[in-house]
Amino acid sequence: MQEAVSTYVRDGLSVAIEGFTAFICFAAGHEIIRQRRKNLTLIRMTPDLVYDQMIAAGVASHLVFSYLGNPGVGSLHCVRRAVEKQIPIPLTIEEYSHYGMVGRYMAGAMRMPFFPLRSYAGTDMPNANPDIRFVQSPYSDESIAVVPPLNPDVAIIHAQRATKQGDTQLWGLLGVQKEAAFAASKVIVVAEEIVEDSVIRADPNRTLIPGLIVDAVVHEPYGAHPSYVQGYYDRDNAFYLMWNEVSRDRAKTETWLDEWVYNVPDRSAYLEKLGSETLDDLKPGDAPSSSVNYGTYA
Amino acid sequence: MQEAVSTYVRDGLSVAIEGFTAFICFAAGHEIIRQRRKNLTLIRMTPDLVYDQMIAAGVASHLVFSYLGNPGVGSLHCVRRAVEKQIPIPLTIEEYSHYGMVGRYMAGAMRMPFFPLRSYAGTDMPNANPDIRFVQSPYSDESIAVVPPLNPDVAIIHAQRATKQGDTQLWGLLGVQKEAAFAASKVIVVAEEIVEDSVIRADPNRTLIPGLIVDAVVHEPYGAHPSYVQGYYDRDNAFYLMWNEVSRDRAKTETWLDEWVYNVPDRSAYLEKLGSETLDDLKPGDAPSSSVNYGTYA
Amino acid sequence: MTDYSASEMMIVAAARALKNVRTVFVGVGLPNIACNLARYTVAPDLQLIYESGVYGAQPARLPLSIGDPTLVTGATSVVPMADLFGLYLQRGLVDVALLGGAQIDRFGNLNTTVIGDYDTPKTRLPGSGGACEIAINARKVYMIMRLSNRSFVEKLDFLTSPGHLSGGDSRAKQSYPGEGPALVISDMAIFDFDNADHEMQLTSLHPGVTLQEVQASVGWNLRVSAEILETPVPSPEEMNLVRVELDPQGMYR
Amino acid sequence: MTDYSASEMMIVAAARALKNVRTVFVGVGLPNIACNLARYTVAPDLQLIYESGVYGAQPARLPLSIGDPTLVTGATSVVPMADLFGLYLQRGLVDVALLGGAQIDRFGNLNTTVIGDYDTPKTRLPGSGGACEIAINARKVYMIMRLSNRSFVEKLDFLTSPGHLSGGDSRAKQSYPGEGPALVISDMAIFDFDNADHEMQLTSLHPGVTLQEVQASVGWNLRVSAEILETPVPSPEEMNLVRVELDPQGMYR
Q1: Residue C164's closest CA among C188, C192, C129?
Q2: A289 located within any domain
Q3: Which of A198, A283, D101, D126 is 20 to 30 A from A256 via CA?
Q4: Could you name the CATH architecture of C6-246?
Q5: Which residues of D are known to be catalytic?
Q6: Which of C52, C165, C177 sits opposite A122 (nearest CB)?
Q7: Where do the domains of chain D lie?
């Protein structure tokens, strides 16, 4: 992770760590904080705690998003401090709706000049963001909202399993990970498990991201804690509630960052500090999918 | 099948039997021929043998497509006779490229007024089809080709398995089945196996079509012969080669239709006539996918 | 008489409003409890759709968020968000969406973006999420919000999600696929928009609540329907489901 | 000396042209054999992409069509066609596409639609399939076609898939993502477009073929590169792979 971040996440670049509620790569976010990146444009539909922490650490100057919240809990206090009070540094924002962000990634991934969607008309959103525009249909007198393509410099995608070459499979909430990866110039895949090529090839319909577009593969079990990975661990909800309290206060936030990010060399040390009991408590029971037959045709 | 076709496939409607090379529901095509439908608009990216047979039987007056061929073999002689010589009845055509057809289904499925794609510019295709148009991007001086939404009256989708409610799973080549189903007003699912709800719910990422949009479910094993169903049976290539000969001649074609469609009451009778040896020869070996864990979270 | 809180009355009223509904777009929190209560009572075939990509969820526990893993396991279908928004919502497959907001106006327009000026905000709110396109594309929208004149305002600070816009035919002119707000279910009363102006009007008071109390919690001169009903109190069965099955920890009491 | 047919020479020459290529968009028939031969020889890491939705195929038999189930089993990824065309092709992930056609002109434009008039066709051909967008979006296009003056024509009856259009900067003006035709590999000779006009020019004659024979099979006054090479004959290893592994039944002999 240290090498992947130092190679691909350079000051001033745009970075998308995606994963809707699940698969949020806190391990990458913490490494970016530790490497004290500056002036990043952070892109994420739901900034969640990972960007709250990164913005509190001052790595970002611009945020592109569609929903600013601590999911199921409340506000993102550090993002609000940056937006409302320029603490620790000013943060400019650029906002869309969820489908607008999805459409921007899709347009970026498919090299479309824009993505049309039924949204925004009649609202104040196009006033707040002049990149939300309207196009006339050539088949009727209808006009439709459009959003521009989004092509992050770097996308970071957390997954259950990948090969060393980056062929990546996910199950559970698929969010916009595929679209973000195909839209990005560089892709870092972070996986709970590194598997043999044959594991991926045994179920090709489940492959979300091909190694073809992947630049670095990092093996980082529990790299998405305190968010969750379907079938591997549950969300650490106590952490989300704790963060709601800690993040209200700037000093407490900095103490937390010192203790859990700056003074922790890597993810293994973080997990050791967290303790195996916490991790064990997050283990779900088994709910295996059935196997399907692809058939041999020789 | 008899009931599903008589209820939903009425004279004059537009019908899409989809499935790219695989999952082609010949059982539905033959039933439509037997019920002597007239004036249908047939929609399919690759008309394949199923539409060659239907057009030879005179059920269609209009064809929407992107590639007219007997895949890996040669021409569709009956379609060519209809287009070149108006035999047995005139057939008008409306053609796109593959991605244009995909985009039309996507626009129809997502209720978009048009779908933009990088194609057609500089070619003769927009001259042959005035519905291929161009739109100016509001973000640059670039113009992009667009195609209009496609919303078939009926889509017929063949699959490995579905519940009685129509929740449907497919693996192998996914083609445009999902897009065609969501684009259509009525959806008929034809399945190799009818399974319990719990089978589908054990692997929700594999569900391509929800019962919510399905109007009829037909249990029809081998309903895609002579095309194939991944993991269930191989393509009957001898049939594809035989058809290439039979279909060259109008009389031979009609004899074939009499013998294998008109004089056969249903799919079971067709399979019996075909013989279990032929079907056994088409069985593939086993290539099971691995199981994945979705986890229980209670 | 059954014991219940104002919030629980709101949950029960929202659940009852889902009678005979086939698909509902569920938000977290109150809408989630209301939808699950409806599944157990008036709408056993109700299909739950979550913007996280889940269709036909059967959660084994009360989800902590709309992205909870319990929504995935055992669902009918779990799809990329591109498909959820494109093929389900925009395609017109959502019968009812439940929405809330920081501010609502008399035409059911919602603000979830900002209090104060956009560029120099007093309070920065979460933003649209999917609400803007949900409000445009869902066949009908039900709002669940606690009554207060900080929330029910004469003029929104920001219009995030369109309701009936400026009323009358102003929404129809936009040619949105969806019909817009149909109900507002609050902790004190229920409102609909069944008049030519499409203006919010009081139709039912929860037991023990007066018209005057409701008017005092609304930032404009409230329209009242010809007949004001009294909302039936929660039944013992409904309360038992809420307190034992759905919210045993009393988070939404 | 190794025994080989003109078709086999064409297959071998096409395979060699794929040296160091990472991704190739494969059509059925000759292109398919050529790509698989390349995997065994000059391009062991070559990834096969099929418009049917397959990435990283490892077919266990020679596929009967681009939708053969043997392409699915054991592939790296199998996706909806929407993703194959949007995320792979249009995204710019195809290094080389192999195309053929009924007619080609001197600028590498292809006709696969119709012989004669569009509305009253002499021969109705298959149509575009994916060829139109492949010709526009693939980084480079190699054509594999048998030489004949019925195919290599002065003027196409229909322009299905754009090559260098009318030559010079006419393709550049269209701002297509891909560079267009780079090679034409035939059963008699190899051509490239490496001149300012982007006009097809003869660069290599297969052994035993004369310039005169090639000119007689082309419907325009053929451009010839400064130096004409002789295509190296198929090696015993190449021929062994073609005849034993890839085309044991001699379908493409």
Answers
A1: C192
A2: no
A3: A283
A4: 3-Layer(aba) Sandwich (3.40)
A5: 51
A6: C165
A7: 6-246
- Residues of chain D with C-beta less than 8 angstroms from the C-beta of A296: 60, 73
Structural domain that includes position B129: 115-148
Which one, of B163, B169, B187, B156, lies nearest residue B232 by Cα? B169
pLDDT surpasses 60 at D1:
no
Chain A residues within an 8 Å CB radius of B72: none
> Which chain A residues have a beta carbon less than 8 Å from that of C79?
174
One domain, residues A83 and A140: no
Burial class (CB in 10 A: 0-12, 13-18, 19+), C120: exposed
Interatomic CA distance for residues A283 and B41, integer angstroms: 54
Q: CB distance B284–D69 less than 8 Å? A: yes
8 A C-beta contact, residue B163 and residue B206: no
With CB atoms and an 8 Å threshold, state whether D53 touches B234.
no
Taking the CA of residue D56 and the nearest CA in chain A, the distance in Å comes to: 9
User: Each residue of D173-230: pLDDT tens digit?
Assistant: 999 999 999 999 999 999 999 999 999 999 999 999 999 999 999 999 999 999 999 9
- pTM, whole model, 2 decimals? 0.97
CB-CB neighbors (< 8 A) of D61 in chain A: 297-298
pLDDT at B220: 98
Note whether B33 and B134 are same-domain residues.
no
Buried/exposed A94-133: b ≥16 CB within 10 Å, e otherwise: ebbbbbbbbbbbbbbbbbbbbbbbbbbbbbbbbebbeebb
**Cβ distance of B290 and A114 shorter than 8 Å:** no
CATH number of the CATH domain containing B243 = 3.40.1080.10
**Beta carbons of A20 and C81 less than 8 Å apart:** yes
**In this predicted complex, what is the ipTM?**
0.97
A95-147 pLDDT, tens per residue? Answer: 999 999 999 999 999 999 999 999 999 999 999 999 999 999 999 999 999 99
Please indicate whether, in this complex, the C-beta atoms of A212 and D47 are within 8 angstroms of each other. Answer: yes
Q: Does D49 touch chain B (CB under 8 A)?
A: no
